[in-house]
Amino acid sequence: MSVLSVNNLSVVKRDRLLFSKVKFNVVAGSLTYLRGVNGAGKTSMLRVLAGLVEPESGEVLFQGEKIQDCRNDYALSLVYFGHKLGVNQTLTAVENILFWCDLHQVIATTEQVYKILAQLSLVGLEDIPVANLSAGQQRRVALARFWFKKNAKLWILDEPFTALDVQGIALLNQQIKTFLEKGGAVVMTSHQSLQIEYPTTEVTLEYNI
Amino acid sequence: MYFDGFQSFLDMGGYGLYVWLSFGVSFLSLAWLWLDSFFSKKALFKNVHAEQARLARIKVASENSENNGVQV
Amino acid sequence: MWKWLHPYAKTERTYQLCQLLLPWFSVFGLFIIILATVWGLAFAPTDYQQSDAYRIIYVHVPTAVLSKSLYIAMAVAAFVGLVWQVKTSFMAMMAFAPVGATVTFVSLVTGAAWGKPMWGTWWEWDARLTSQLILLFLFLGVISLYKAFDDKQQAGKAAGVMAVVGIINLPIIHYSVEWWNTLHQGATIMKLDKPSMPPEMLWPLLLSILGWILVCGAISMLRLQNEILQRDLKRPWVVKLALNEHVWGDKK
Amino acid sequence: MQALVSLLKRDLSLAYRQRAELMQPLLFFVLVISLFPLGVGPEPKTLQLIGPGVIWVAAILSSLLGLERLFRDDFSDGSLEQLILSGTSLSGASLVKVFAHWVTSIFPLIILSPLLALFLHLTEPMYWALLKTLLLGTPLLSLIGAIAVGLTVGLNKGGMLLALLLLPVFVPLLIFATSAVEAASMGLQYNAQLAIIGAMLLFSLALAPFAIAYALRVSQN
Does residue C34 sit within a domain? Predict the structure, then answer.
């Protein structure tokens, strides 16, 4: 049974029909790559999949159930990474991550956070306010959530590679690959071509005025 | 000593409350101001130590990544 | 000739200067304040009109005088900073501001406490108390403007402009409040003025003013050091200082 | 439940770190109130007459100033999205955020109220009535204010719109609170007014969190 199934979904934003009657399934262990030119509604699609936005019509099912009906189970198994990083500027990186873990019922200790931040090559930047970090570094702090939420079944990523350097992109690709091999499902968009050696199903959104 | 006893000194001709309140507030404010400045100086030095610790951590990390290749 | 005024060396040199003067100012200041307070409270004769309530002047007058002079000092530091682009004088300005605000607050509380026996209420919209209150708001305005900026360089300039604007407005506020007060003269029975001063009452007052000046000077110097450290946190001389500081335990 | 506790701790530590910004509504409150004697004259009689109204209008305006900060940062940096997607009950989280905001920026107003009662020469019974109405009324300000803030957090020109939305809604609170204090000045009983404000508070305590949660979801798209 598919992790996520989308049945004739149409979304309107600022009174403009972005796309209509879109239908696709996401099965466990699959990488879905959402393609489309700017303005085709990729971000809006991801926000609808995550449950942040109500679609105009159609439905999104998580393991056969509408996401509005199983909000808790869906929340426990979803990790969302949008344009806005979800990292507070005044707190330090460690505080941000610990707070995110508390929010998502993930047990994490400060040592684990320091270790993961070291892997994300953020050594020495862990305990200063995030405002002092560069855009790329802040993005790495936000990426740390993928290392922590072990029992997640679905990742939704909205152009995760922007502002990341080559080493960061390699790190993230590696993390996505291991997650997929362990049976996780990933839905993502990216303006760079994907370099993950993994079978990808593509969903293309046409741009209609 | 102008006052004949400690009691009348405390009483301040009936205005004890106001006099002691004024002197109390003045010297408490001075003390608070001094302590605040003093402890923020301490905090600044603590900041410098934390900064040094950070630099040390970065040096250690960069040494590790040099000797076992770029850590992916 | 002006080599030592080289901006980089100046901050460290100012820090050392404060470090040198700090012990003298604080020790003498504290000694004189205690001496003056004991003298004024216990040994000075009573006033025939206000009996012993008048002893509050040994705290109220110094703080009132100091609040205005600290504002002037702050404004002068701001003016020097703005005109000659001297970074350290902005730091001095920000060192004076909290001290001035606290001293103004103390003068308000002591003024109100002194007024209570006469007017029967803790707070009376007397001309002097009202302008002291506005002075406190001027101080708090400069401080919160400084704190609103992340970049301390910009913060110094902005707060400096406000301090200069404040100093220009100070006399205007003072006289308009005086005029406002006489307009409603009916409200206050007796103005808050100093009782006639025989010498044995005057000496403790002058002494406590000196004491307050020294202590406020000491605290301002300490805060100036903090501002300098804050600005040069990454500079090697501060790092060296912090490391020795830790090893010997705290000298001060 | 653990998530709500850590949310509260995070908000309180954030408020502590931004305490300079937090002081501003407070200074505004004291400033506005000390302007009135300069305008109206220092006679205790007139000040006493306008006192309650002045304090309450100033309290409403300065809480409006503070309310803006409630969701602004979390919305702009995306923490709000993560909160919505985290499965913790959004209405519970809204209640926690409103409580944290009330404690850090509106409760200090109440601590300052004796000073302001002094400024405006309020009598002893008047002050107690004022204190009771403030204690009951200001949480109401926060709760209802948070709904409007939740709705306007998406638009970046929320300032005046917020005042426009909220001032009419605060009128009943203003009327009952000031009348309670006036009744106290004449030595009359004012439990009826307090009961009404209390009822309004309980009503909004029950419904506002859900409205705030809904407002936050609406402002997402």
Answer: no
The pLDDT value recorded for residue C192 is 54
Structural domain tally of chain C?
A: 1
Residue C190 has a pLDDT of 47
Per-residue pLDDT of chain B (72 residues; tens, 9 = 90+): 777 778 777 877 778 888 889 999 999 999 999 999 999 999 999 999 998 888 888 888 888 777 765 544
Instruction: Look at residue B6 and tell me if it is in a domain.
Output: no
Structural domain count, chain A = 1
Cβ within 8 Å, pair A123-B50 = no
What CA–CA distance (Å, rounded) separates D193 from D37? Answer: 27
Pairing of strands A154-158, A200-204: unpaired
- What would the pLDDT profile of D120-150 be if each residue is shown by its tens digit? 999 999 999 999 999 999 999 999 999 989 9
Q: A105: domain CATH number? A: 3.40.50.300
Buried b (16+ CB within 10 A) or exposed e, A31-58: bbbbebeeebbbbbbbbbbbbbbebeeb
**Cross-chain residue pair B55–A124, CB shorter than 8 Å:** yes
**Best residue in D85, D86, D96 for a mutation probing chain A (most A CBs within 10 Å):** D85
Residue C187: per-residue pLDDT: 46
Query: C15, C27, C55: best mutation site toward chain B, by most B Cβ within 10 Å?
Result: C55
Helix (H) or strand (E) holding D15, with range, is helix D2-17
Q: How many inter-chain contacts (C to D, CB under 8 Å) are there?
A: 40
Chain C CB within 8 Å of residue B28 CB: no
Q: Which two tokens stand for residue B54?
A: 């950070």
pLDDT at residue C140 above 60?
A: yes
* A209 part of a folded domain: no
Paired strand residues for A204: A35
* SS3 state at A191: coil
pLDDT (tens digit per residue) in A48-81: 999 998 888 889 999 888 888 888 899 999 999 9
Q: pTM value?
A: 0.83
Q: Cβ contacts of residue B67 below 8 Å, gap of 6+?
A: none
Domain of B55 in residue numbering reads as 37-65
Confidence (pLDDT) at C27 = 94
Of all residues in chain A, what percent are helix, strand and coil, respectively (each to 5)? Answer: 35, 25, 40
Question: Per this entry, what is the length of chain C?
Answer: 252
Q: Which domain holds residue A97?
A: 4-204
Residue C1 forms part of a structural domain? no
- D220 CA to chain A: closest CA distance, Å? 7
Identify the CA nearest to D148 among candidates D133, D169, D173, D134: D169
First to last CA, chain B: 81
User: Nearest CB to B54: which of A124, A170, A174?
Assistant: A124
Residues 6+ apart with CB under 8 A from A47: A53, A82, D220, D221
Cross-strand pairs, A21: none
Smallest Cβ–Cβ distance between C123 and the set D20, D27, D119 belongs to D119
Let me know if residue C25 belongs to a domain: no
DSSP codes of every residue in B21-49: HHHHHHHHHHHHHHHHHHHHHHHHHHHHH
User: What's the gap in Å between the CA of B52 and the closest CA on chain A?
Assistant: 10
Domain residue spans in chain D? 2-218
DSSP H stretches of helix in chain C: 7-38, 57-84, 87-119, 127-148, 152-183, 199-231, 236-248
Is it the case that residue C134 has pLDDT exceeding 70? yes
Cβ pair C136, C101 in contact under 8 A: yes
In a domain, B28, yes or no: no
List pLDDT tens digits, range D13-57. Answer: 999 999 888 888 999 999 999 999 999 888 888 999 999 999 999
By Cβ distance, the residue of D23, D34, D121 closest to C133 is D34
Q: Residue C12 domain-assigned?
A: no
Chains A, D: CB pairs < 8 Å: 81
d(C-alpha D27, C-alpha A38), whole Å:
47
